[in-house]
Design brief:
The complex is a heterodimer of chains A (143) and B (113). Chain A is of the alpha+beta class and 143 residues long. Helices cover 23% and strands 40% of the residues of chain A. Chain A is globular and about 40 Å long. Chain B has a single domain (7-112), classed as Winged helix-like DNA-binding domain superfamily/Winged helix DNA-binding domain (Arc Repressor Mutant, subunit A), CATH 1.10.10. Chain B has five helices and three strands. Chain B has helices spanning 7-16, 19-27, 35-41, 46-58, 78-112; strands at residues 33-34, 62-67, 70-75. A three-stranded antiparallel sheet of chain B has the order 1-3-2. The longest helix of chain B has 35 residues, at 78-112.
C-alpha cells in the first residue's frame, strides 16, 4: 500500500484592496513578514528568507515559547503564485505545502492560501491557545 | 519519527480520501446497514467493498455488530470531529494571517500617499 498523502487541506481566501504586486512582496520581504505573520500571543516574529526557488526560509515566532517555522520555496511567480513548504511544531515537524495565489479582481486582489499535505495532528494546548489569540489579534488589527 | 499518537488521524484522513468510502459513510448517516446491503448499493465487488469497510473500521469510523450471520455497520463520527478540529485550527491561523496582511498592506499604502 502506498503511503497516501493525507487529503487534509485548508483553503482560506480574502479579497484585499491592494495590488497583487504589493501583496506578493509582503510575503517575501522579511520586515513586512515580521509585522503581519505575528499571531496573537506572539510578541515578536523574525524572518530570514532566501527568496528564490530552492531557497529556504526561517520564521521564528516568539511568545512564551519559541516556534520556529522553516521551509523551502518551490514556486516564485510574481505576482501570481507563491509555493513553499511549511514545517513547524504545528505539523509535528512534517513537511506540508502552502500555495498562495494572487488573483486580480478589478482594483482588488483575492489572496487564496491553500495549505495541504497536512499529515499529522498536534494536540498540544499551545496550538489551541493560538486560536483564541489569533482572534484577539484580528480585532486589534481590524481598527 | 516515532510519533504515533497521530496515527489514528492519519487513518481517518486516508479513509476519507476515497469517494467510495465517503459514499459508504454517507449511506450510514441516517441508519446502520448490513454489509450485504451496502455492497448491493455499489457497483463493485463485495471483496472491494469489504476492503473499503476495513479501512473505515481501522480509522474508527464504523462500528460493527454481529447478529447471527448479519454484520451490521453503523457510523461512529467521533474521529471526524478530531480531524475537523485540526483543519479548523489551520483555517483560523490563515484567516488571521490574511487579515493581518490586509491591514499591513493597506495601511502601508495609506502612508505612501
Amino acid at each position: 500500500m502506498n503511503a497516501a498523502v493525507a487529503p487534509a487541506a485548508v483553503v482560506v481566501r480574502r479579497t484585499i484592496a491592494a495590488s497583487a504586486e504589493d501583496l506578493f512582496d509582503a510575503w517575501l520581504d522579511p520586515d513586512a513578514l515580521a509585522v503581519w505573520m505575528r499571531p496573537g500571543g506572539i510578541k515578536k516574529t523574525t524572518a530570514k528568507l532566501d527568496a528564490r526557488v530552492g531557497g529556504r526560509y526561517e520564521i521564528v515566532m516568539q511568545g512564551d515559547e519559541t516556534y520556529p517555522h522553516t521551509g523551502e520555496y518551490r514556486v516564485i511567480d510574481r505576482p501570481k503564485r507563491l509555493v513553499f513548504t511549511w514545517i513547524s511544531s504545528g505539523t509535528e515537524q512534517h513537511e506540508s505545502l502552502v500555495t498562495v495565489d494572487f488573483l486580480r479582481a478589478g482594483k482588488q486582489t483575492e489572496v487564496v492560501v491553500t495549505h495541504e499535505q497536512l499529515p499529522q495532528t498536534q494536540r498540544s494546548s499551545h496550538t489551541n491557545g493560538w486560536t483564541s489569540a489569533l482572534e484577539r489579534l484580528d480585532e486589534h488589527y481590524a481598527n | 519519527m516515532g510519533e504515533y499518537k497521530s496515527a489514528q488521524l492519519d487513518n481517518v484522513f486516508n479513509a476519507l480520501c476515497d469517494p467510495t468510502r465517503r459514499a459508504i459513510l454517507a449511506r450510514l448517516t441516517d441508519s446502520g446497514a448490513r454489509v450485504t446491503d451496502i455492497a448491493a448499493d455499489f457497483p463493485i465487488s463485495l471483496n472491494s467493498i469489504s476492503k473499503h469497510i476495513r479501512m473505515l473500521e481501522r480509522a474508527g469510523l464504523l462500528r460493527r455488530s454481529v447478529n447471527g450471520r448479519d454484520h451490521v455497520l453503523s457510523l461512529n463520527a467521533e474521529p471526524l470531529a478530531e480531524a475537523a478540529a485540526w483543519i479548523e485550527r489551520y483555517r483560523r491561523f490563515w484567516e488571521g494571517r490574511l487579515a493581518a496582511l490586509d491591514a499591513y498592506v493597506t495601511s502601508n499604502k495609506r502612508k505612501r500617499k
